[in-house]
Design brief:
- This is BioF2-like acetyltransferase domain-containing protein.
- A hairpin with a 4-residue loop joins strand 10 and strand 11 (281-289).
- Helix content is 31%, strand content 28%.
- The protein is built from 10 helices and 13 strands.
- By secondary structure, the chain is an alpha+beta fold.
- The mean pLDDT is 92.
- Helix 3 (113-131) crosses helix 4, helix 6 (183-201) packs across helix 9 and helix 7 (218-232) packs across helix 8.
C-alpha cells in the first residue's frame, strides 16, 4: 500500500476529495462533517485540522487533529495560513473533542492492525512536515485498548487515563432496562420518570425530542451548554473552546442528531441533550441543565437517559456511549466502564 496524506484546515481549505463518501461509508458521527468542523474551527483557540490518508485516491484513514498552543493568547486562533510550517511551539492532539471517550482517528474496515499501526507512524511524520520545527509532539486522546497497543514503543508514554461508560443494546425496551437495575436505583428512576411525566401532564414542562430540530435557536442551546461546562469546572488540560450558536444552529438541524429539549411553561429552556446516530455506537453527547436554584427541575437527567435508551432499543446499534463523568451515576444506570487511554509521542520519536 502506497499512502499519501492530505491535511486540510477547514477554515481556508476545501473539503478533501472523497471525504463525504468515506464519512458515509464508515457511518461516522455527525461531528466529523466538514462544514461542522469549519464552524468549530473558526471559534476555536486550538482549531482542528482534518487529515486523510489515501491509498492512491481511496481514503483509508482519517484523523481530526487540534493544533494547540500555550494559553498565552486571545480566545480565538490567529488567522490561518494556507501553507507553511510553524516556528512557535505547538503540539498536536489527535482528538475528536466532542466525542467523549472515543478516538480522533478512524480507519477503513479492511485494514489489519499492522497496517493501522504503520499508518499512525506515517500520520506523525505528515504532521511534522506540515507543522514544522515548532511541533513538540503528538498527544493521542481517548483511544481504546486496541489503538493504545499500536501506539506503544520506545520513548512513547501510553497510560490508561479514564473510562468511558457504555450500555449494551441488550434490552427490548425501556422497561427491560429499568428492570435490569438494582432495586434501589430502579425505585429512584421510576419515581423520577413519574415526576417528569406529572409535570408534563400538568403543563409545567414541555418535552420535545427528535431529529432535524428546525424549531430551536442555536444561540439558546449554546448558551446553556457553555454555561453548564463552566459551572462544572473546565479542567486545566481541556483544550476545547466554547461552541457558538452558529454551530448549534446547523448541528441540531441535522437528520443524524437527536435533540431532546425541556422548556418550562413560559418557554424558557431548562435542559437539553443531544444524541448522535451511528450504525454501531450511539453517543449520548451534550447535556446541560439549569440549576434548581435558578429555576431548573430535578430528575430531567434521568428522563434524558430513559429517552436515550428508547432510541437505542429502536436501532440495531450494539451500544450506547455516555462519555465519562459522572461515573457513579452512569454505572448505577447499568453502564459498564471501558478503559480509555492517552498516548504521548515526543517529537524525537514521532514516526518511529
Amino acid at each position: 500500500m502506497t499512502v499519501s496524506f492530505e491535511i486540510a484546515d477547514p477554515r481556508t481549505e476545501p473539503e478533501p476529495f472523497g471525504w463525504s463518501e468515506f464519512r458515509a461509508r464508515r457511518g461516522l458521527h455527525a461531528v466529523w462533517d466538514y462544514d461542522l468542523l469549519a464552524l468549530e474551527a473558526w471559534a476555536a483557540r486550538n482549531p482542528p485540522l482534518l487529515v486523510v490518508a489515501r491509498d492512491k485516491t481511496r481514503i483509508v484513514a482519517a484523523a481530526t487533529v487540534l493544533v494547540c498552543t500555550p494559553r498565552l493568547r486571545p480566545a480565538y486562533a490567529a488567522v490561518s495560513r494556507k501553507r507553511g510550517p510553524m516556528l512557535k511551539p505547538v503540539w498536536a492532539e489527535v482528538y475528536q473533542p466532542w466525542l467523549s471517550g472515543l478516538p480522533g482517528v478512524v480507519f477503513s474496515d479492511d485494514l489489519d492492525d499492522d497496517a493501522r499501526a504503520a499508518l499512525l507512524r506515517e500520520l506523525e511524520r505528515a504532521l511534522a512536515r506540515r507543522l514544522g520545527a515548532g511541533l513538540l509532539g503528538v498527544f493521542y486522546r481517548s483511544v481504546g485498548a486496541d489503538l493504545a497497543g499500536m501506539l506503544e514503543g520506545r520513548g512513547r508514554l501510553v497510560r490508561q487515563v479514564d473510562t468511558v461508560s457504555v450500555l449494551p443494546n441488550d434490552f427490548a425496551d425501556r422497561d427491560g432496562w429499568i428492570a435490569s437495575l438494582s432495586r434501589s436505583r430502579r425505585t429512584n428512576v421510576t419515581r423520577a420518570l413519574r415526576d417528569v411525566s406529572r409535570r408534563v401532564e400538568s403543563g409545567q414542562l414541555v418535552v420535545v425530542g427528535g431529529t432535524a430540530r428546525g424549531d430551536l435557536t442555536g444561540g439558546e442551546v449554546a448558551d446553556l451548554l457553555n454555561r453548564h461546562r463552566l459551572d462544572r469546572g473546565i479542567p486545566s488540560l481541556d483544550t476545547r473552546s466554547p461552541l457558538l450558536g452558529s454551530y448549534f444552529h446547523s448541528f441540531v438541524r441535522r437528520p443524524d442528531v437527536h435533540t431532546v429539549t425541556y422548556h418550562d411553561s413560559e418557554g424558557r429552556l431548562l435542559a437539553v441533550n443531544t444524541l448522535l446516530d451511528h450504525p454501531q455506537c450511539l453517543v449520548k453527547q451534550h447535556w446541560a441543565a439549569l440549576p434548581v436554584a435558578e429555576g431548573g427541575l430535578k430528575n430531567l437527567l434521568f428522563d434524558s437517559f430513559a429517552r436515550a435508551v428508547d432510541t437505542l432499543t429502536r436501532t440495531t446499534a450494539a451500544e450506547l456511549s455516555a462519555g465519562r463523568r459522572p461515573h457513579d451515576v452512569k454505572h448505577a444506570l447499568g453502564f459498564t466502564p471501558r478503559p480509555v487511554f492517552g498516548a504521548v509521542v515526543p517529537r524525537p520519536v514521532m514516526g518511529r
